[in-house]
């Protein structure tokens, strides 16, 4: 069935199709409709699910941990300050290896208060042991929810995961979305069969107990090993998804990268604008390409290394900053280059914070600066903020 | 005996903290004088462990018994005893 859906609705439909048994979530702009739509489905009898109403996001994720620990399929959703409020429980969920899936409409973190799009909220959780997918459009948003349940619940993984959509840009914008039919989703995603954590009075167990210096490191190494294992599982699931639903996703989507000298790296919806600029510049004979990172954790080291080896400049356009250093994507890409001894020039462009639109002229500037760096043989200005209003400073 | 960490560090034999005898943490040991004790139950109510439990005869409390395997010697029982039936004595004695 094809419908005109906002990103929030697409995520809600994706979650509904996966038949979660418990949803516990709290509303926050721009995620609100994600959870309101799911509440409607439950109220209208379209989704047989226990919808736990709680008073905060901290309680929401805590309820999800409890429910998932009891052995049922769980979904939640949030944005920005809500995700930040969940912060301490994020590590609890991954440490307990609970396959919770979360939808996020990424939004800037306060202060100052800003309800608009950037990736500071999800980037702040990149260390937490949650698998992260960044969707570029509403179809990918819906499909990612379904893929993530399959990845998270895979016995080689058993980690929580999230898909994030650009706040307002995708969450509130209508696109034509194909809603898969329930039968095919049921075939692709069988019911969750908990093995390591479940509530059974005849087999009592304790979850979330003490881990002293004697064992904590090994407990956490196990989480890391599961994260690393999930990379192959994500690729398998993406291939399997294509077989069932006819849409093939990639951990890194490559657009005209093969012969590109300058490759722009972007996440989420801004990649769409980037591709338009790539097309225009290609007409002018410039060898430009764009790589969109969809799987952010585990980081797609192999794909980034391959792209880096072929290109002369990597220009990262990102919507978050790690204050006092570089943007997070730059730092993660730089690690891949260092690991592999790759000397490709690396430029960081901080853009679109707090919902400032990323427009074509920004990408044109990115390519201009990349060409300058290429000519000079080095990045004179390795970090730049795009579209900054100097007159306000 | 070395066991591997479980998935999610789940403890499959809950209640195994009873293997850890915290009585060894004591510096002071509570001694109860059962001739003074009126069986009011305050020591049992306030003991944080609880390391004081009632010994019952049907529905009646015969006496309160201190479990020295787990008593950490905090002295709360002595503080709340209405009859000063409990004294804290150094472990070294």
Structural class of chain A: alpha/beta
Strand order of the largest sheet of chain B: 1-4
Query: Tell me about the biggest sheet of chain B?
Result: 2 strands, antiparallel
Radius of gyration of chain B, in angstroms, nearest whole number: 17 Å
Give the CATH H-level superfamily of the largest domain in chain A.
Answer: Thiamin diphosphate (ThDP)-binding fold, Pyr/PP domains
Provide the CATH architecture of the largest domain in chain A: 3-Layer(aba) Sandwich
User: What is the β-strand count of chain B?
Assistant: 4
Low-confidence stretches of chain B: none
Task: Provide mean pLDDT of chain A, rounded.
Answer: 97
- Which shape of chain A, going by the Cα principal axes? globular
Key traits:
heterodimer; A: 393 residues; alpha/beta; Rossmann fold; 2 domains; 7-stranded mixed sheet; 13 helices; 15 strands; 41% helix; globular; B: 93 residues; alpha+beta; Alpha-Beta Plaits; 2 helices; 4 strands; 11% helix; 25% strand
Fold and architecture overview:
Chain A has 13 helices and 15 strands. By secondary structure, chain A is of the alpha/beta class. Chain A folds into two domains: 244 residues, 3-Layer(aba) Sandwich (Rossmann fold); 141 residues, Rossmann fold, CATH 3.40.50. A seven-stranded mixed β-sheet of chain A has the order 3-2-4-5-7-6-12, with helices on both faces. Chain A has a six-stranded mixed β-sheet with strand order 9-11-10-13-14-15, with helices on both faces. A two-stranded antiparallel sheet of chain A has the order 1-8. In chain B, strand 2 and strand 3 form a beta hairpin. A two-stranded antiparallel ribbon of chain B has the order 1-4. In chain B, strands 2-3 form a two-stranded antiparallel ribbon. The model of chain B has no long low-confidence stretch (mean pLDDT 94). The N and C termini of chain B lie far apart (35 Å). Chain B contains two helices and four strands; from the N terminus they run E-H-E-E-H-E. Classes of the chains: A alpha/beta (393), B alpha+beta (93). Chains A and B meet through helix 9 of A and loops of B.
